[in-house]
Design goal:
Order of helices and strands: HHHHHHHH
CATH superfamily: Ankyrin repeat-containing domain
Distance between the termini: 44 Å
CATH topology: Serine Threonine Protein Phosphatase 5, Tetratricopeptide repeat
Keywords: ANK repeat, Repeat
Number of domains: 1
Radius of gyration: 14 Å
Helix content: 55-70%
Largest sheet: none
CATH class: Mainly Alpha
InterPro entries: Ank_Repeat/CDKN_Inhibitor, Ankyrin_rpt, Ankyrin_rpt-contain_sf
Organism: Belnapia rosea
Protein name: Ankyrin repeat-containing protein
Strand content: under 5%
């Protein structure tokens, strides 16, 4: 198992202590990989591992653009689809863009709606509209 595989396994388990230890040895493990299926931020968001998600975000994992949402869902789309309201809030706090669209034109709010999370979808539609008005 490579160090990257070990890191992703720790993220997937929600093992914040292991993630912190691996990051202290190699901070590049948290490098943004938005638009890739093995993005650690998207994985933590999808699974609702808030401690790991916060650790990654505070370590700069969200510092670069989220990648091309046409290639793979963004972390925000993943959290919205899974109904993880706290993960969505954390991602928005760290600058995730609720207006990004996937290759089918769906936003994070659409992902939430499709998964039956109407309250979360409502919040995301409002945030996306606010984002659109700012730009």
């Amino acid at each position: 198992m490579t160090e990257r595989d070990e890191f992703l396994a720790a993220v997937g388990r929600g093992d914040a202590a292991a993630v912190a230890g691996l990051l202290s040895a190699d901070p590049d493990l948290a490098a943004p990989r938005g638009g890739h299926p093995d993005d650690p931020v998207a994985l933590a968001a999808r699974l609702g591992h808030l401690d790991v998600l916060r650790l990654l975000l505070e370590g700069g994992a969200q510092a670069a653009p989220e990648g091309d949402p046409r290639e793979a869902p963004t972390a925000l789309m993943e959290a919205a689809s899974a109904g993880h309201q706290e993960a969505v809030a954390l991602l928005l706090e760290f600058g995730a863009d609720p207006a990004l669209r996937d290759r089918e034109g769906r936003t994070a709010a659409d992902y939430a709606t499709e998964a039956g999370h109407s309250d979360l979808a409502s919040r995301l539609y409002t945030d996306a509209e606010t984002e659109r008005l700012i730009w």
